[in-house]
Design brief:
- The protein is an alpha+beta fold and 495 residues long.
- It has two domains: 234 residues, Aminohydrolase, N-terminal nucleophile (Ntn) domain (Glutamine Phosphoribosylpyrophosphate, subunit 1, domain 1), CATH 3.60.20; 192 residues, Rossmann fold (3-Layer(aba) Sandwich), CATH 3.40.50.
- The chain is built from 18 helices and 21 strands.
- The strands form five sheets. It has a seven-stranded antiparallel sheet with strand order 3-2-4-1-10-9-11.
- Helix 9 crosses helix 10.
- The protein is globular and about 70 Å long.
- The two termini are 31 Å apart.
Length: 495
């Protein structure tokens, strides 16, 4: 494996540093000589789910080939020799945003291990909530860990299982874990995909000719011309080998709780989630905001890029003109000079600039997907004021983010969440806008699934808004996440 130089665009968007961070993206293909090339394209489509690192492991007979690097997919896999070295008719890939473990090459996935039965690779989207508890037990049994990722816990559980085959070992291992996960795995004989029993993290199944594909989102199927077959069911194990595709459901059924933030921000707008178009769902969220929180104004302006669909929905439902009042420069990487605070602040305008000629003298509505710490919102409002906006109103297409996530999304500790510390009015004053309003929980649910939230059994995981965690928080409840000596820690919170 050859590490790639850090891509300078990975941490450069000043309007993204206050958003919840995407979890990860996974992709797997079985049954085509172009496996690595298709995986590279699939990872390109899933780049929005993780920009810290990427990796691919392919299988050519009993030989496994791997390449990983820090940064974006393009520079890591742009070399023809790199792709040619990833020979084989099966491959899995991963794009990473870390929520456990450090951002270092040894944590980059897919992770690979040599079992008695042959090679094995695994890529994981999500977070295990009992990883530290399991890790301590495994270390006592003599297991040696090579990474600080919770995914390696699954590897050791598979390695130490007494079951007779890799699929059975995988099932045995996953019976012991708690939390949210979508997995793709590569063995000597098969590509295996698994979705957690609650379906918190997404996973889809597709087909391209005789080859089968497993991926985090349908947009990864579209980019390679594959047909979408269906979502992988919660708790389903998909095994693809020379005899075809096999499905097992070995885990007790649980209510499905897909992360509702997939519809708000995480998923790419052109993807389908549980049969629903993400783009249309976001537009409906904007329309719901008009019904719940109308405001008299001259322009609706999206915060790029995630606020665009909801802003369109808001504009169409309200009759207020939609305009691109913030122009994003897609060709600027890391700010190359930052010797002082004054120069550092200019870096914001290198990447996003106000469209002053349409903003000056206008009452504007800014539509964004969320407010986490509030630092970015202050920058945006300040930018609009300097561009001459007469009034600045903010409308947010999610309820207030009040609680941290433990299921694979990087959120700050609760004391750093703005909505956990302030009322809506206090937040508006701190941000500097004339008014601030969030969509209600019922409004969000009506937009996404057509009905209000079922308070007895919510249709989605909305723990970051409600504090109702559907899955056990074993490590958290045992105090293992708060200790500085613990190797496997929640993400460092970069917002």
């Amino acid at each position: 494996m050859t590490p790639c130089a850090m891509d300078n665009t990975t941490t450069t968007n000043p309007f993204d540093d206050d958003h919840l961070k995407e979890e990860c993206g996974v992709f797997g293909v079985f049954g085509t000589d172009d496996a690595a090339r298709l995986t590279t394209l699939g990872l390109h489509a899933l780049q929005h789910r993780g920009q810290e690192a990427a990796g691919i492991v392919s299988r050519d007979g009993e030989r496994f080939n791997a390449h990983k690097g820090m940064g974006h997919v393009a520079p890591i896999f742009s070399s023809e020799p790199v792709i040619n070295a990833l020979a084989g008719d099966s491959a899995i890939g991963h794009v990473r945003y870390s929520t456990t473990g450090e951002t270092i090459l040894r944590n980059v996935q897919p992770l690979f291990a040599e079992f008695e039965s042959g090679g094995f690779a695994i890529a994981h989207n999500g977070n295990l909530t009992n990883a530290m508890t399991l890790r301590r037990s495994l270390v006592k049994r003599g297991c040696l860990f090579q990474s600080t990722s919770d995914t390696e816990v699954i590897v050791h559980l598979i390695a130490t299982s007494l079951e007779s085959s890799i699929p059975k070992r995988v099932i045995d291992a996953l019976r012991q874990v708690k939390g949210a996960y979508s997995l793709v795995m590569l063995s000597n004989e098969a590509v295996i995909g698994v979705r957690d029993p609650s379906g918190v993290r997404p996973l889809v199944l597709g087909q391209l000719g005789d080859a089968y594909i497993i991926a985090s989102e349908t947009c990864a199927l579209e980019i390679i011309g594959a047909d979408f077959i269906r979502d992988v069911d919660p708790g389903e194990v998909i095994i693809i080998d020379e005899t075809g595709l096999h499905s097992e459901k070995p885990f007790p059924e649980r209510p499905q709780r897909l992360c509702v933030f997939e519809y708000i921000y995480f998923a790419r707008p052109d993807s389908l989630m549980d049969g629903k178009g993400v783009y249309e769902a976001r537009k409906r969220i904007g329309a719901e905001l008009v019904h719940e929180k109308p405001v008299d104004a001259d322009l609706v302006i999206p915060v790029p890029d995630s606020g665009v669909p909801s802003a369109l929905g808001y504009a169409q439902a309200s009759g207020i003109p939609f305009e691109l009042g913030i122009i994003r420069n897609h060709y600027v990487g890391r700010t190359f000079i930052q010797p002082t605070d004054s120069i550092r602040n200019l870096g914001v305008k290198l990447k996003h600039s106000p469209n002053t000629q349409i903003i000056e003298g206008k009452r504007i509505i800014l539509v964004d997907d969320s407010i986490v710490r509030g630092t970015t919102s202050r920058k945006i409002v300040d930018m609009m004021r300097h561009a001459g906006a007469k009034e600045v109103h903010m409308r947010i297409s999610s309820p207030p983010t009040v609680f941290p996530c433990f299921y694979g999304i990087d959120t700050p500790e609760r004391e750093h969440l703005m909505a956990a510390r302030m009322s809506e009015a206090e937040m508006a004053e701190a941000i500097g806008c004339d008014s601030l309003a969030f969509i209600s929980m019922d409004g969000l649910y009506r937009a996404v699934c057509g009905e209000a939230r079922n308070s007895a059994l919510p249709q989605y995981c909305d723990a970051c808004f409600s504090g109702e965690y559907p899955l056990e928080l074993t490590d958290h409840d045992h105090g293992l996440l708060a200790r500085p000596s613990v190797l496997v820690e929640r993400g460092s919170g970069k917002k």
